[in-house]
Amino acid sequence: MQKTAPIGIFDSGYGGLTVLKELVNQLPQYDYMYLGDNARAPYGTRSYETVYHYTLDAVKWFFSRGCHLVILACNTASAKALRTIQQNDLPKLAPEKRVLGVIRPTTEIIGQYSETREVGILATKGTVASGSYPIEIARFFPDIKTYQEACPLWVPIIENDEMDNPGTHHFIKKNLHALFHKGENIDVVLLACTHYPLMRRQIEEYVPVQATLLTQGEIVARSLAGYLLRHPEIEEKCSKNSSLQFYTTDSVEDFNEQGSMFFGGAIRSKHVNLEESSNF
C-alpha cells in the first residue's frame, strides 16, 4: 500500500464541492480526491439502511484507492451513516484509517455565534428527520434551543439553476418565515446542506438583520486543519502535491458542467462504478 494518498471527499452529488472549494482555499497543499455518487442521488429521501450501504460503498472505494482519511461532505451521509461506519465497519475494515463528517465540526462551534441561545437549521428532509443537529448541538451546548425547517425544493432549484426565479424567492421566504415562527429569537441560521451556499445571496434577503447566516465549508476546513494538527499520524499519510481528482458515478459531461458551478472553477472528472470497484 502506498505510504501517502489524497484526502477523500465524498458527497451524494455536487454539494460537497462547496466544501472542497473551502478546503482547497484554506489547505491548498494537500491532494484531494472527490467522488460524487450522482447516479444514486439524492440521498435525502432514502432510508437509513440505503444511505448507510451507499456511503459504505464509497468509503471502501476511497480505501481501495489508498486514501487514509475520508470526509463525508454530505449532511445526509453524515447523519445517517457516519456513526455506524466509524463504530462498526472501520475496526474491521481498516482500524488505522479515519472517516469524518460535516455535522460535528459545525455543532461544536455554533454556540459561539449565538447570544439568544436559539439557533435555526435549514436542511433537507432527511437531515431534519434524523435529528442529528439538535442532538449534537445539545451535546456541546445544552442551553441552546434548536429549531429545524426542511427545505425540500431548494436542492432541485439550485441544480436546475433557478436561484433567481421569482418562484424561488417565494419558497425561500416561506421556509424562513416558518423557521422564525418556530423560534422568534433565533440569532444564528445554519445552512445545513452543502448545496445551499449557492443560494446564499437570495436567502440573506429573508434572514432578519439580527441573525447570522452560517455555511459549512469554512467551518469544516478550519476543523480539518485542527484535526490534522492534533493527529500527525494521519496528517503524515496525506499526500501534498496540491492536486485535485474528480470522480462521478454518473455522466462525466453533466458532472463537469454542473460541478463547475458548485466548485467555482473548471472540472474534469472520470467515471467510476462503485458496485464494481468498491471491494476492499
Description:
A six-stranded parallel beta sheet has the order 4-3-1-2-9-10, sandwiched between helices. Helix 1 (16-26) packs across helix 11 and helix 2 (48-64) packs across helix 4. It is 46% helix and 16% strand. The protein has helices at residues 16-26, 48-64, 75-80, 82-93, 103-107, 125-130, 132-140, 154-159, 166-182, 200-204, 216-230, 232-235, 252-263, 274-277; strands at 7-11, 32-36, 69-72, 98-100, 118-123, 145-150, 188-191, 212-214, 244-248, 269-271. It is built from 14 helices and ten strands.
Secondary structure class reads alpha/beta
Q: Write the element-wise H/E pattern from the N-terminal end onward.
A: EHEHEHHEHEHHEHHEHEHHEHEH
* Largest beta sheet: strand ordering: 4-3-1-2-9-10
Beta fraction of the residues?
Answer: 15-25%
Largest sheet: 6 strands, parallel
Low-confidence parts lasting 5 or more residues at pLDDT below 50?
Answer: none
- Supply the number of helical segments: 14
Mean pLDDT, to the nearest integer, reads 95
End-to-end separation: 12 Å
Secondary structure: helix percent? 40-55%
Rg over CA atoms, rounded to whole Å, is 18 Å
Number of strands: 10
Shape: globular
